Amino acid sequence: MAQMNMIQAIRSALDVVMDKDPNIVILGEDVGYFGGVFRCTDGLQRKFGEHRVIDAPIAEGGIIGTAIGMGVNGLRPVAEIQFADYIYPGFDQVVSELARLRYRTAGDLTSPVTIRTPCGGGIRGGQTHSQSPEGIFTHISGIKTVMPSNPYDAKGLLISSIESDDPIIFFEPKRIYNGPFDGDPDKAAVSWASHPKGEVPGGYYTVPLGKADIVEPGDDLTIITYGTLVHVAQAAAKLTGFDAEIIDVRTLAPLDVSTLTDSVNKTGRCLIAHEATRFSGYGAELAATIQEHCFWNLEAPIERVAGWDTPYPHAFEWQYFPGQKRIAAGIRKVMEAG
Amino acid sequence: MSTRSRLHIPHPSARPGDTPDFSYLELSPAGAVDKPPIDVRVRDIDHLSHGLVRVLDDEHKAVGPWNPNFEARELQVALRWIMLTRIFDERMQQIQRQGRISFYIQSLGEEAISIAQGMALRPGDMCFPHYRNQGLYLYRGCKLVDLMCQCLSNTRDMCKGRQMPIMYHSKDANMFSISGNLGTQYPHAVGWAMASAIKGEDHIAASWVGDGSTAEADFHHAVTFAAVYQAPVILNIINNQWAISTFQGFAGGERRPFAARGLGLGIPGIRVDGNDLLAVYAVTVWAADRARRGGGPTIIEHVTYRGAAHSTSDDPTKYRPKDEWDAFPLGDPLLRLKNHLISEGHWSEKQHAALEKELRADVLNAWKEAQKSGTMTEGPYLDPATMFDDVYAETPEHLEIQRKQMLALED
């Protein structure tokens, strides 16, 4: 076991699988010589060479489009989109090509591309370096959408993603690259060193796709969340004193429905939290699923805490970010209803 | 020049009722364009993107440095494939008009491109076609009956009923899947070619788009990546003069030939007579040899004419002169090859008529065979339960649930 932050864990995942499988290649802007703007691929080009860790032109559609072709030709490409906010020029390639190829060819042609991309706010990135577009991707059949909340899961889930024969959109919440973030921007930054999930095996292991994780067991209510907000929700629950069962979804699609519904059927109360905008957001799907499976056990309306339905404003980052106070208020509302 | 800016709206040279006018097409006489060695410096062959490589002259003779010097037998076989493609199209068009398939796209007038390039490429090369490459599917080994079954979405459909007609694929023939979103296959071809080079193989990739689709971002992504990594790929632009109702000017073809699209990136461009099988074959072999030996990508613009409607969904008499194809200076690729063979003494009208009869029978037999696997109105039918397969490598729980829900309603 080693202490790793999320960046080191992701790099370790790439290193381990590239050692194992010569068909794995990395493609993206600044990923090669420089090692990525967030350093996730640092040192990999030196180790694996320029033909396996490839610096790409500034063209996200080209990165995803060529990665698909590489995948059809037997490689297992890991494409990096520097910020999730930059993924839209490649959106058609994801929706119309990557996600559909297996289906439209009845399984004859496939391309196991993994797209890694940092998402989320809290780094003063303004509206073009802070978005959480996961809900757009969970709406597309044929791809799987993953978002880890800690180094251990990041490495295990990334290895599973790269080895999966399905295309994967792998979101990395960049606010927690260096340490867990409880939503209080005024507190000193915390590193992963003191967090149990910062303990990461150096070698090969996997965390299965399609399985949610019960981060904290509890009886009063269920908080369903993922990414950065897992840590914010934990702090918010402490603030309220309620005994919350906190679930980290981890694989957003396909969803591990039973882990979520078993929990809500037990607690009878449910809060859903995500950083992405609320309207038509991923939380709406979660709420509908919970309603469908847990209606007769619900003691209060399902509460959603999410980013406001505005672009991510640079100057009002912390008013926008669904921090401890907003989640705590949501918890109280769920607990006081009914 | 004017004293103020102006918005230029491109207009074709003729609309319905006008006399067809192809004076905008710059043509070179057959044999006039030089053939450089494949290791030529790219900057020294810019002129190939503005000339027009032609081998068959107006007297039906094969002339000039690009003449591939085919044996008569090879050309007879090529003619057979072109004829088969045309007869297949004719039959499928008719079948669509009878309401027996939902949609069709003919390749009338463009058949020589698919066949010539099929002949020039190797089986191990990977093709990323567009929707008017049916000749290439046939040439590379796809059976008539299998293409028909795809159009019927029947039990023998390679796509299991998931794609509209003509969106074929064949893993065995190294033919990629056709997408309705235009130009998306172009970067796939470049990525495939990059992978081939990464793996140290000498297979190359080839892709095709229409003149209209060169406006898509994917086109530009593809040529950029192809240039940057010198990918072993042939990027074909089929300039058939028309997108649907917009002519090639709406893709920016008014002032510079499409073959010149890659010059700024250092990709050589060759403009070729797309209705001349010999010329298309020769430039494709040149580009393929170059790609296979590390020379990188080539853009080939095939100057041709879309002889039929864009698809069964549009009526071309609404947007272009009825007799425009008759006036097209590069003629009909089938007739040109036929006349060449006849003028060389290797073919006759009698042989031609006999072959046509034989191929019509083949197509008709294939259609009879295809219908045995089901039609739109008569079984056998595909099992609707299969629509939940192949979304993912393994079917996840929520799709199994939806499959059961759907089947419950079927009972």
Automatic annotation (TrEMBL), chain A:
It comes from the Bacteria. Its cofactor is thiamine diphosphate. Residues 4-179 form the Transketolase-like pyrimidine-binding domain. The keyword Zinc does not apply. Keywords: Oxidoreductase, Thiamine pyrophosphate. The branched-chain alpha-keto dehydrogenase complex catalyzes the overall conversion of alpha-keto acids to acyl-CoA and CO(2). It contains multiple copies of three enzymatic components: branched-chain alpha-keto acid decarboxylase (E1), lipoamide acyltransferase (E2) and lipoamide dehydrogenase (E3). This is 2-oxoisovalerate dehydrogenase subunit beta.
UniProtKB/TrEMBL annotation, chain B:
GO terms for molecular function: branched-chain 2-oxo acid dehydrogenase activity. Keywords: Oxidoreductase, Thiamine pyrophosphate. Residues 1-21 are annotated as: Disordered. Its cofactor is thiamine diphosphate. It is an enzyme of class 1 (oxidoreductase). Coiled coil: none annotated. The branched-chain alpha-keto dehydrogenase complex catalyzes the overall conversion of alpha-keto acids to acyl-CoA and CO(2). It contains multiple copies of three enzymatic components: branched-chain alpha-keto acid decarboxylase (E1), lipoamide acyltransferase (E2) and lipoamide dehydrogenase (E3). This is 2-oxoisovalerate dehydrogenase subunit alpha. The lineage of its organism: Bacteria, Pseudomonadati, Pseudomonadota, Gammaproteobacteria, Woeseiales.
